[in-house]
Design a protein that fits this description.
Number of helices: 12
Strand content: 15-25%
Order of helices and strands: EHEEEHEHHHHHHEEEEHEEEHEHH
Distance between the termini: 46 Å
Low-confidence stretches: 244-251, 349-353
Strand order of the largest sheet: 7-8-9-6-12
Shape: globular
Mean pLDDT: 85
Helix content: 40-55%
Radius of gyration: 20 Å
Number of domains: 1
Largest sheet: 5 strands, mixed
Structural class: alpha+beta
Oligomer: single chain
Number of strands: 13
């Protein structure tokens, strides 16, 4: 009798937020243009897991899966805190440690998903992404996936949990498209906001195994704003403050920043409104002049202004996801398709060809 190691590339604690009835979740398949209701107990049909997905010859059995589970437990606690706060209509209080774990989840999901492996193998990315990966075979791509997860666990997660300093200079010097540099970039060039869907709206967020979706400035290829739903009605927003581009001389950087604010941010404001892209934070430092993991950051939840805004975010998620879309209802998919057509949001593979 063979032993099956079923491993999720979209964490179960996330999937459970979208559970509907009878412990099932609803999925729309882009490839098949069809909906399915899948029980979490039915491992054979679980589209967000795969047998021995994180197993590797250089690691013990379940070693990477156990490290992922450890990280997911801590991150789930932060997400539950955010969701609970949104339900009480109170300000959201997060520690510096909480914010570091949020950013860790963003990067972790970016490197661990099945979609990113398939996209890398198929070279379905932008020019730089394809240039970096064009000479890699499937085994090398899988090796990198495992080593990136291990790096995030050892060099970032363990330090956060122990309240120890992260080696930012080491991360900054790492190559583009590595997990280490991505964590440096998202920690030093983006601020966070938190939005929610009002209760009287008849719509919900959708997600894929990539978890976050971005709106990119067409002239500079820099991400302007990114949305990461953590429940059907709550999303974390990452807003770019400076272009996250390595090795640019100052003059070029200034020119890119000017283009971003004149073009990309203007378009983002037209789609999502000024409030989502404006800083919304107060700080309470434990000791003046010193950074502590226990420093508190206070946010106000931003109510989305229309169902159209939700559908626009969902349309981006749909277009940048590879196949399976986790949703609460079929209507959410119907509405995002309308927005995708009206705003000419192309599927990522189509846009790159």
């Amino acid at each position: 009798m063979s032993y099956t190691v079923n491993q999720h590339f979209l964490p179960q604690f996330m999937i459970k937020k979208w559970i509907t009835i009878n412990n099932t979740y609803k999925v729309y398949s882009k490839l098949n243009n069809s909906f399915s209701d899948i029980s979490l107990k039915n491992k054979a049909k679980d589209v967000f897991s795969e047998n021995e997905f994180y197993e590797h010859k250089n690691y013990l059995s379940n070693e990477i899966e156990n490290k992922l589970s450890e990280m997911e437990r801590e991150i789930a606690n932060v997400f539950n805190k955010i969701i609970k706060s949104s339900e009480s209509y109170k300000s959201l209080h997060l520690s510096r440690k909480d914010l570091k774990l949020i950013r860790l989840f963003y990067v972790l999901q970016m490197v661990r998903s099945k979609s990113i492996i398939i996209r890398t193998n198929n070279l379905d990315g932008d020019y730089l992404f394809n240039a970096i990966n064009k000479n890699k075979n499937s085994e090398e791509i899988k090796n990198e996936l495992i080593s990136e997860i291990n790096f995030l666990y050892n060099k970032i997660f363990k330090l956060i949990i122990k309240n120890e300093l992260i080696n930012w200079s080491e991360l900054e010097q790492m190559p583009l498209w590595t997990a280490g540099y991505s964590y440096f970039q998202i920690s030093n060039s983006k601020f966070l906001n938190f939005c929610k869907i009002p209760k009287d709206f008849n719509t919900s967020f959708v997600i894929t195994d990539l978890s976050a979706v971005q709106m990119v400035d067409s002239s500079t290829a820099v991400s302007i704003v990114e949305f990461m739903p953590i429940s059907p009605d709550i999303a974390i927003i990452f807003v770019t403050t400076l272009p996250a581009i390595a090795n640019f001389e100052r003059k070029k950087l200034d020119n890119i920043a000017k283009q971003l604010y004149n073009n990309g941010f203007k378009k983002a404001q037209e789609n999502f409104g000024y409030l989502l892209l404006n800083r919304n934070i107060r700080n309470k430092y434990q000791k003046k002049g010193f950074k502590s993991y226990e420093d508190i950051f206070i946010y106000q939840f931003i109510n989305l202004d229309s169902e159209e805004t939700v559908s626009t975010i969902n349309a981006l998620m749909f277009s940048q996801g590879l196949d399976n879309i986790l949703c609460k209802s079929e209507k959410d998919i119907e509405q995002l398709k309308i927005q995708r057509e009206e705003k000419n949001i192309s599927i990522i593979e189509e846009a790159n060809r």
